[in-house]
């Protein structure tokens, strides 16, 4: 269904610009996964108009985040957000932008940070206007695979991302992040926004995008288009536990967090936090513990493979991607990354086979076309490789790596002018994207070609 028609049906673009986005992974999802995604989209259609009225934008000078209206007492509204959106403010002004586009300057003294380094904060503001207050859910009854909806601002646009629960921690985790979600991107600006269940109850606060690697250049990136686990969130139950310490009476109490032995999901989430901090060896150790409890957790093999890749353990990464594929044969992300690793191992035929599999599952994957182009050129089939680079650029014209690789293919084929043109485009894109090293390397290639 076209996005503009979805938006029209949802009725969510009346007060503020917004966009509902679905994960491309649904192309390769199992029938049950597709059913869940369809159900969530239907649920979103029925409830999105009310949900959008619960989300605010938070502007703090140089940064922007999101928040959820969770309480009203007389003229006083309380917003729940992520602490990293509003901490270290000093004398910086905080502006709350409500769904009706009203702006409320907030005194930094109205901001309260959660205790124990939990990445939550509340903000209060005064208004005589009527705003919708979110219904608090119960994250203790969330289940793996359950549909969810992540909502928050990206610039001036309100984003709605359907996804599913991947892991649910039952213990306290670093900074409170105990929920791992899949499919629903947490983009810059969406931190502090809401995570909602199928009935529209607030079950978490979005906070972290899970980093992965660019399958073409093997570099750490914040957000990658193909990514099963997309973010971490803090459960609403974690907030309820500490609400009284923020001088909030929610009228509800929950049992204390479990002190039992950690589950496989707990180790998985801990590993994700360690990976976020660059502790890849520690992450691998926790992924090992996860697999000892649940050896059929395909996402763990995928994540452990990424950690191994960043440690340049190519053989170990290849083996883990292979295990993930054995458990979940229709797993385009695993094929994509294994193909990239096989390119690094100069296993060109194996890499090409993997990229073929990705394109069969997801013909819109520009990264797969670039990776296959690399393998084809290495197999002395640069004309075929050039077709893949052209296709990748048609899918994503801002893919600087695709332009650069196309320049190399033209060079190999003796087309010096076309090579220079492609490298010039790549250099400009690298410059615009702030990739200084790639920009300088590409400029040097252009100089060498011009010199003849």
Total strands: the figure is 16
- From the spread of the alpha carbons, the general shape counts as globular
Task: Work out the count of structural domains.
Answer: 2
The CATH topology of the largest domain turns out to be Thrombin, subunit H
List the strand order in the largest sheet. Answer: 6-5-2-3-4-8-7
Q: How confident is the prediction overall: mean pLDDT?
A: 84
Largest sheet: 7 strands, antiparallel
CATH class of the largest domain: Mainly Beta
Oligomer: single chain
Q: Could you give the distance between the termini?
A: 51 Å
> What structural category arises from helix and sheet content?
alpha+beta
DSSP strand content: 15-25%
Helical content, roughly? 40-55%
Helix run count: 15
Unreliable sequence segments: 1-38, 218-227
Based on the coordinates given, report the CATH architecture of the largest domain: Beta Barrel
Q: Radius of gyration, rounded?
A: 23 Å
Summarize the structure.
The protein folds into two domains: 1-259, Thrombin, subunit H (Beta Barrel), CATH 2.40.10; 270-451, Serine Threonine Protein Phosphatase 5, Tetratricopeptide repeat (Alpha Horseshoe).
Short key terms for the protein model shown above:
452 residues; alpha+beta; Thrombin, subunit H; Serine Threonine Protein Phosphatase 5, Tetratricopeptide repeat; 2 domains; seven-stranded antiparallel sheet; six-stranded antiparallel β-barrel; disordered N terminus
Overview of the structural elements:
The chain is of the alpha+beta class and 452 residues long. It folds into 2 domains: 1-259, Thrombin, subunit H; 270-451, Tetratricopeptide repeat domain (Serine Threonine Protein Phosphatase 5, Tetratricopeptide repeat, Alpha Horseshoe), CATH 1.25.40. The protein has 15 helices and 16 strands. It has a 7-stranded antiparallel beta sheet with strand order 6-5-2-3-4-8-7. A 6-stranded antiparallel barrel has the order 9-10-11-16-13-12. β3 and β4 form a beta hairpin. The longest helix has 22 residues, at 31-52. It is globular and about 75 Å long. The termini are far apart. Residues 1-38 and 218-227 have low confidence and may be disordered.
């Amino acid at each position: 269904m076209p996005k503009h028609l979805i938006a029209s049906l949802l009725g969510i673009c009346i007060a503020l610009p917004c966009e509902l986005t679905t994960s491309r992974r649904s192309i390769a999802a199992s029938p049950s996964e597709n059913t869940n995604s369809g159900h969530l989209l239907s649920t979103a259609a029925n409830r999105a108009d009310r949900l959008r009225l619960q989300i605010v934008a938070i502007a703090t000078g140089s940064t922007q985040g999101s928040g959820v209206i969770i309480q009203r007492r007389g003229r006083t509204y309380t917003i729940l957000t992520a602490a990293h959106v509003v901490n270290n403010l000093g004398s910086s002004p905080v502006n709350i932008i409500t769904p009706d586009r009203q702006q409320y300057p907030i005194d930094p003294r109205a901001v309260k940070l959660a205790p124990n380094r939990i990445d939550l904060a509340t903000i209060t503001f005064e208004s005589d206007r009527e705003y919708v207050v979110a219904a608090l859910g119960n994250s203790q009854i969330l289940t793996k695979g359950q549909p969810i909806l992540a909502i928050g601002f990206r610039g001036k646009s309100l984003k709605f991302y359907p996804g599913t629960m991947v892991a649910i921690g039952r213990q306290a985790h670093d900074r409170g992040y105990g929920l791992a979600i899949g499919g629903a991107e947490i983009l810059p600006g969406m931190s502090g926004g809401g995570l909602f269940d199928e009935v529209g109850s607030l079950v978490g606060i979005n906070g972290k995008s899970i980093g992965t690697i660019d399958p073409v250049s093997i570099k750490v990136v914040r957000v990658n288009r193909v990514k099963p686990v997309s973010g971490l969130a803090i459960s609403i139950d974690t907030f309820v536990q500490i609400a009284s310490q923020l001088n909030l009476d929610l009228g509800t109490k929950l049992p204390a967090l479990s002190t039992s032995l950690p589950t496989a999901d707990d180790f998985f989430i801990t590993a994700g936090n360690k990976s976020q901090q660059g502790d890849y060896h520690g992450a691998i150790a926790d992924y090992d513990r996860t697999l000892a409890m649940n050896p059929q957790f395909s996402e763990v093999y995928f994540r452990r493979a990424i950690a191994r890749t960043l440690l340049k353990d190519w053989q170990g990464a290849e083996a883990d991607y292979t295990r993930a594929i054995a458990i979940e044969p229709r797993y385009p992300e695993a094929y994509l990354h294994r193909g990239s690793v096989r390119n690094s191992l100069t296993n060109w035929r194996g890499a090409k086979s993997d990229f073929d599999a990705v394109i069969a599952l997801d013909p819109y994957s520009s990264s797969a076309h670039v990776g296959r182009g690399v393998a084809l050129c290495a197999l002395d089939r640069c004309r075929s490789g050039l077709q893949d680079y052209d296709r990748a650029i048609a899918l994503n014209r801002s893919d600087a790596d695709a332009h650069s690789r196309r320049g190399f293919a033209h060079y190999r084929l003796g087309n010096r002018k076309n090579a220079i043109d492609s490298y010039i485009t790549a250099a400009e894109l690298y410059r615009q994207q702030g990739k200084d090293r790639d920009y300088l390397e590409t400029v040097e290639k252009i100089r060498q070609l011009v010199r003849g």
